[in-house]
Amino acid sequence: MTDFNTPMHQRRLHRSLTDRYVAGVLGGIAETYGWNSTLVRVLFVASFLLPGPQVLAYFIAWIIMPNG
């Protein structure tokens, strides 16, 4: 769990161990920044309406981000 008294630039991005559907990438982003994980997931799915490498970015994050 992230300590929200820590400045945002000092928080470490990690994959969530508790809030995950696939790999915990979106749950970890939500935990790190204090956002609602459902909102992060909805925005990610909505981003598929725009052109871009969303799935590739997700898999790269899955590989790079450590487990929290």
Strand content: under 5%
Roughly how much helix do the residues carry, as a percent range? 40-55%
Main β-sheet, in a few words? Answer: none
Number of domains: 1
What's the SSE pattern?
A: HHH
- Report the end-to-end length measured between terminal Cα atoms: 8 Å
Give the CA-based shape.
globular
Number of E strands: 0
Low-confidence regions: none
- Average residue-wise pLDDT: 86
The Cα radius of gyration reads 12 Å
Structural class: mainly alpha
Number of helices: 3
Task: Provide structural commentary.
The chain crosses the membrane at residues 42-65. It is found in: Cell membrane. Keywords: Cell membrane, Membrane, Transmembrane, Transmembrane helix. Residues 11-67 form the Phage shock protein PspC N-terminal domain. This is PspC domain protein. This protein has helices spanning 25-33, 37-46, 54-64. The chain contains 3 helices and no strands. It has one domain. Helix content is 44%, strand content 0%. α1 (25-33) packs across α2. It is an all-alpha fold.
